[in-house]
Amino acid sequence: MSKFGTLVMGPAGAGKSTFCTALIQHLQNNKRPCYYVNLDPAAEDFSFAPDIDIKDLISLSDVMEEMGLGPNGGLIYCFEFLLENLDFLTEPLDLVTEEYLIVFDMPGQIELYTHVPILPKLVQVLMGGSLNIRMCAAYLLESTFIIDRPKFFAGTLSAMSAMMMLEMPHINILSKMDLVKGQIPRRDLKRFIDPDAGLIDDDEARHVEEEKPGTSRNSDPAAVENVMGGSSFHQLNKAVANLIDDFSMVSFLQLDVQSEDSVGAVLSYIDDAIQYHEAQEPREPVEDEADARMED
Ligand SMILES: Nc1nc2c(ncn2[C@@H]2O[C@H](COP(=O)(O)OP(=O)(O)OP(=O)(O)O)[C@@H](O)[C@H]2O)c(=O)[nH]1
Ligand SMILES: [Mg+2]
């Protein structure tokens, strides 16, 4: 028997928990069972009560208080503790059947997705061994990042970092599309959906136009010697953007959580990546109440 799940990841405040709520609601509306796992040891309020909540094992506030750690060190401690107590996760998940989509809501600390090898270990446990969950990572990046192009490419790099570290089916999502729709022409938006390195050149041209004499970031010669600035930054940004563009490594789906269609479209990519529908047994139609009455 297979199991199916999605790991909802991304930077702090990207809209992960809101997406999980919208996804669960959408699954319920479509009569699909869902199993909700909260792995954020700092999360407090939930629209749907989690079936598994890491806070029942360990909470970030307790760790910070008792161990004297800060929020980031505390989070790493919580995940190390989870890895030492995997039964907490594996025992209930073992009972979940193949009709369910298991939704994992992750914390937003970026170090989890960049350089700490905790997530790959967790993913190995979930996808391998007896659990054998078919998983798709859903990496959210806030769409407002597109206003600041170097920041957008930096965010795209963080998505790539997660992709490379986890080596699992992966979709990238631009969340909170309601905040940018109407603010940016559709043609321009396309250049962010499939990131186009030319965005950096256009951005540089815009900066040059806006920069008034004497206000240049390079106008202080001492600063130029010590700090990387102006054209050096541009070259670096351009090289990174070209790398992403040339290898077509990242593209984004658009998400507007208020729209049922938008959530449904993202879900269809997740289903496709984990081959959810292929594994489902044909279901008998539920007996119509009216038919049942007629037979009486
Ligand atoms: N306008 C708009 N706001 C959103 C959307 N999704 C989330 N938000 C808001 O963004 C904030 C953060 O949303 P969360 O869902 O808590 O984000 P998160 O990624 O789970 O945050 P952390 O778990 O703290 O990393 C909240 O104030 C949400 O109301 C969206 O699609 N549109
Ligand atoms: Mg959250």
UniProtKB/TrEMBL annotation:
Domain of life: Eukaryota
GO molecular function: GTP binding; GTPase activity
Ranges annotated as biased composition (Basic and acidic residues): 204-214
Keyword terms: GTP-binding, Hydrolase, Nucleotide-binding
InterPro entries assigned to the protein according to its UniProt record, in alphabetical order: Gpn (IPR004130), Gpn3 (IPR030228), P-loop_NTPase (IPR027417)
Hydrolase recorded as keyword: yes
Region feature (Disordered): 203-226
One Pfam family named in its UniProt record: ATP_bind_1
Keyword Repressor: no
Function as written in the Swiss-Prot or TrEMBL entry: Small GTPase required for proper nuclear import of RNA polymerase II and III (RNAPII and RNAPIII). May act at an RNAP assembly step prior to nuclear import.
Subunit structure: Binds to RNA polymerase II (RNAPII).
Similarity annotation: Belongs to the GPN-loop GTPase family.
Entry-linked PANTHER family: GPN-LOOP GTPASE 3, XPA-BINDING PROTEIN 1-RELATED
UniProt protein name: GPN-loop GTPase 3
High-level lineage: Eukaryota, Fungi, Dikarya, Ascomycota, Pezizomycotina
